[in-house]
Amino acid sequence: MIRVVPDTNILVSALWSAPGNPAKIFEMFIKGEIILCYDARIMTEYRDVLNRPQFAFKRSKIGAVLNRVRNDGLSVVAKPSAVSFADEDDKMFYEVAKECGATLITGNLRHYPDEPFIMTAAKFVRERG
């Protein structure tokens, strides 16, 4: 089964816009078509960002999403990477994807190294959807 690590912007977009590619990816996860990989750092980031007031997501919806990720996703312990990042907060997604052989899905390709396992939501849906 295909493993994915969605950057936080993908999860926010999935909740924000139901017809978009990020939502399609989350739906693939809900249906059991893909496995969402994460670690404790990523779960903390998801929780913190989804609870930001500017998004106005309902707490019940945030809780349901995070519980689904925790219960049906794959928790990993990633090895630290020597690759340097302009924004070190992005490194955790890269490390988790490398650790479990996942596709890292992001809306910000420029934040990551140019590697074939890193792609946009549109490309992932086009290739796998």
Your description of this structure?
The mean pLDDT is 96. With 129 residues, this protein is α/β, with parallel strands linked by helices. The protein is 48% helix and 13% strand. The radius of gyration is 14 Å and the shape is globular. The chain has a single domain (2-128), classed as 5'-nuclease (Rossmann fold), CATH 3.40.50. Helix 1 packs across helix 2 (21-30) and helix 2 crosses helix 6. The protein has six helices and five strands.
Indicate the structural class: alpha/beta
Task: List segments where confidence is low: pLDDT < 50 over at least 5 consecutive residues.
Answer: none
Q: Which strand order does the major sheet show?
A: 3-2-1-4-5
Radius of gyration: 14 Å
Named CATH topology: Rossmann fold
Along the chain, the helix and strand elements come as: EHHEHHEHEEH
Largest sheet: 5 strands, parallel
Question: How widely separated are the two ends?
Answer: 13 Å
**Which percent range describes the beta-strand content?**
5-15%
What proportion of the residues is helical, as a percent range?
40-55%
The top-level CATH class is: Alpha Beta
Write out the CATH superfamily name.
5'-nuclease
Number of strands: 5
Residue-averaged pLDDT, rounded?
A: 96
Specify the overall morphology: globular
CATH architecture term: 3-Layer(aba) Sandwich
As for the number of domains, it is: 1
Tally the helices. Answer: 6
